[in-house]
Amino acid sequence: MTSLPLLLLAVSAASVLAESTVYWREQFDDGDAWTSRWVESKHKTDYGKFVLSAGKFYGDTEKDKGLQTSQDARFFAMSSRFDDFSNKGQPLVIQFTVKHEQNIDCGGGYIKLFPSDLNQEDMHGDSTYNIMFGPDICGPGTKKVHVIFNYKGKNHLINKDIRCKDDEYTHLYTLIVNPDNTYEVKIDNKKVESGSLEDDWDFLPPKKIKDPEAKKPEDWDDREKIPDPDDKKPEDWDKPENIPDPDAKKPDDWDDEMDGEWEPPMVTNPDYRGEWKPKEIDNPAYKGKWIHPEIDNPEYTADSEIYKYDSIGVIGLDLWQMKIVIINSGTIFDNFLITNDPNLAEEVGNESWDKTRDAEKKMKEKQEEEERKNREEEDKKKREDAKEAVDEEEEDEDEEEEEEREEDEEEEEEDEEEGTESPLKDEL
Ligand SMILES: [Ca+2]
């Protein structure tokens, strides 16, 4: 009889957990109104501009409008504020779409979540943030998804390598951080990585360390093999390394008096066996490899709330590259969602990203097909023009020969003229 109340309790607990909250959502579906919600940083004077655009190809001309970086080789810094919240005791889901339609060479596609005390007008690369998440591409070497957490004032990068998408289509990126200190990263609504915060980031010092007190005992024999003490060098082992060549003969014209006593040249001794070593046998005293015993690290303190941020209040696009300072523009950010409900995020992803991606792909393929046709036509025209030119040349050849003769004659005449002209010129 006790099972029913327990079941009810479980159901109500589940329904409490399932209560979903959307902290912030941005889809850029109200024209220019986004400009009142986003604040451009004034930390630098030459930030690149974001514009509202669905890009060159898209699934839906209106819905696929998002924030697009519009100038090459710039830094971009813009942010949007929402009601301050803490993710204490709740999952935290950050989701957005990124489209590098420009076939990106080097540039970030990540977001930063800031505490609400961020001064948006002064947001810059070193502004303290809680979480940085999203794709980062720079050349063929860097194509990864960043998941960086600020823990007790220090930024920690994930220890795992999560590869990001590097094509020109829209992709959905989702980070879920759970109150049991686990996480999940999804791309296009599919899990690409998951695990425990403690295992996959170096937030805490190691749980165990090698015991500094423990030392390998001096009589610990860790030699697996030893030379056989009973093995003895055979009596006939030692032979000289080089011997006089037995085949050498004293030359007939050798004169002992003149040339001195003849000695044969030395050659390598085929019977030479090198240095003798006793054979190796298993060491009867072998105790195995010594393993340094470990103890609990006194520096380690467990933290059940690694995941937790007391204040989350601003989302920012702060894109920059430290090394080459070039971001090639064209990236479109859209469908931002911050919620406590992973299921809702999945549904929103399906409703937004999944619904338009096929149409987006088709449009791009159609454009590529048209471009290909145009190129072919141009090439064809070029070839035809070239052919015409050749035909004309052939036709002209006979005439040209004629002309050449005439030209020669003319030149001769000219030379004569020049001959008469030059003194005149000198005088002038
Ligand atoms: Ca949109």
TrEMBL record:
InterPro entries: Calret/calnex (IPR001580), Calret/calnex_CS (IPR018124), Calreticulin (IPR009169), Calreticulin/calnexin_P_dom_sf (IPR009033), ConA-like_dom_sf (IPR013320). GO terms for molecular function: calcium ion binding; carbohydrate binding; unfolded protein binding. Gene3D superfamilies: 2.60.120.200, Calreticulin/calnexin, P domain. Residues 196-276, 349-428 are annotated as: Disordered. Its main location: other. Belongs to the calreticulin family. This is Calreticulin. It comes from Neogobius melanostomus.
